[in-house]
Amino acid sequence: MEQIIRQYRVKTVFHMAANNDNRDTKGSPLSIFEDNIRATYSILEACRRSCIDRVVLASSQESDRQLHKSGAKMHPYGASKASTELVARSYVESYALPVIVVKPDNVYGPGDLNFRRLIPSTIMELLRREKLKFNGNPNTERGFIYIDDLIDALLIVGDTRTGSLPSDCIINLHARELHRIGDILSLLEKLTKTASKKPHTNIEIRSNPSPKTLAISDWQATVPLNEGLQQTIAYYRNKLAPN
After folding, report:
1. 58/170 Cα distance (integer angstroms)
2. Which stretches does DSSP call E strand in the chain?
3. What torsion do the CA atoms of 214, 145, 19, 44 make, to the nearest 10 degrees?
């Protein structure tokens, strides 16, 4: 990593990669800790030795929910992301490494092939006319950010000319609105124009304004959920089409 940084004279490093498998707790969590924690300190150490101008580290709001919500269960993924934030903080405070941690709401859009996640798995099941496997709480509210909006935010954060961002800050990227998971499932059914074998209560999509303020004054999520989901469905319809 250090050799690559020096060879190509990299000034800003975006560390977006992670193992986000937080559902299966039957197997060993070692791969999650190895992929997320070890990879993070290895990258940060390479950046420290190479005098990088800025490091943008992706974390997750899932760690906050598991740490601070009463009765929430701490999964290995949440623990690993909370740990990477502490590792980043140590590099900032001990070595003055300019690290900015970005914690977005749930990101969705074309290109996501992790079919253990809500939106990709639901679209795949609907397009294949399979029974929906979602067994969580449909009343849970979450924010959803389209991938293009996330990229816009990351480019702002990674621009070292953005002088108003201190090198030790944590930036929460929030969707414009919060939506019930049950409403997301109903909307996906409508947009894919298929009927699921598992009945859902037909509820009009309602949303609540996100209760938290954005930390980047010149960014906001702009792609409406309906539009973003339509583009996402079109991607999976093409991707999953038989050859």
Report:
1. 10
2. 12-15, 54-58, 99-104, 106-108, 141-146, 170-173, 177-180, 207-209
3. -40
User: What is the value of pTM for the model shown?
Assistant: 0.83
Running DSSP on this structure, what letter comes out for residue 35?
Answer: I
- Residue position matching structure tokens 């070292």: 160
Residue spans of beta strands (DSSP E) within 113-155: 141-146
CB 146 within 8 A of CB 192: no
Tell me the C-alpha distance between 53 and 167, whole Å: 10
Beta-ladder partners of 172: 103
In tens, the pLDDT along 99-126 reads: 999 999 999 999 999 998 999 999 999 9
CA–CA separation, 157 and 54 (whole Å) = 9
2 CB-side CA count, 13 A: 10
Q: Could you tell me the pLDDT band of residue 202, with boundaries at 50, 70 and 90?
A: very low
Best CA proximity match to 112, nearest among 242, 32, 243, 231? 231
Phi, psi of 74 (to 5 degrees): -85, 110
Residue 119: DSSP 8-state: H
The angle that helices 118-127 and 181-192 make with each other, rounded to 10 degrees, is: 30
Instruction: Using alpha carbons, select from 143, 146, 136 the residue that is nearest to residue 207.
Output: 143
Q: How far is 11 from 61, CA to CA, in rounded Å? A: 27
Q: Amino acid identity of 142?
A: R
User: Which amino acid is present at 194?
Assistant: T
